Amino acid sequence: MRLLFLGDIVGRTGRAAVTARLPGLVERYRLDFVVINGENSAGGFGITEEICQDVLDAGADVVTLGNHSWDQREALVFIERQPRLLRPLNYPPGTPGRGANLYVARNGARVLVMNVMGRVFMDALDDPFAAIARELDACPLGEQCDAVVIDFHAEATSEKQAVGHFFDGRASLVVGTHTHVPTADWMILPGGTAYMSDAGMCGDYDSVLGMDKEEPLQRFTTKIPRGRFEPAGGEATLSGICVDIDEMTGLAAAVAPIRIGGRLAPALPAIWD
Ligand code: FE2
Description:
This protein is α/β, with parallel strands linked by helices. It has helices spanning 11-28, 49-58, 75-78, 128-138, 157-166, 214-222, and strands at residues 2-6, 8-9, 33-37, 62-64, 85-86, 100-104, 110-117, 147-153, 173-177, 187-188, 194-196, 201-202, 238-245, 252-260.
């Protein structure tokens, strides 16, 4: 089974890269399932219903969120009628929407997807380890589902690695998002879970985390805000991870990074050629 996970879409240029390139990738590589983090897709902050639909129409099966989930207030409402949009699982009880859900992939596989937030250098939320464990206990890999994808939206690489190791063998993929720079540690952990500390972003890398450089530089050097953060407008690099999943076990058989367009050195999923 072929799974593609793309990192955080940042602004208009990130959306343009996804809508222009994803349909071709789905076709060329016969992708069975696609997950994309969309928490920065609306001007860098949150997501709108229209943008969410555009990303789904381009070929995403699930769109995940993070600390910017509610920056566009309409997300609090439309998430209730959009089961393919996930917000962090470990938000307080009563938060609109859902943090985990079961989907059917194009090959018929049942895929459990979770969006979970870390707590190191981030908001104080419920324990992500316990939250993930509850979902896996209720829907174990190889029993109630055929693949498990965990988008762990977190700042600290240590916490991301800890989640990867803690759930090694119980998920098909644990991938980090939020830091917007792809890490070079894609691998299959000893227990069979594919792992990458950060998927990177679908955004313009001639930027500070996808934002136009001017305002971040101003704030770092003078501590005086001059304006708003605006997404950088240059061509985006599509960035993420490809996982070939063994259909018997639900664990990873092969893993590779993907980077297309923009400023980063390209990487195509050779595992599927
Ligand atoms: Fe984030």
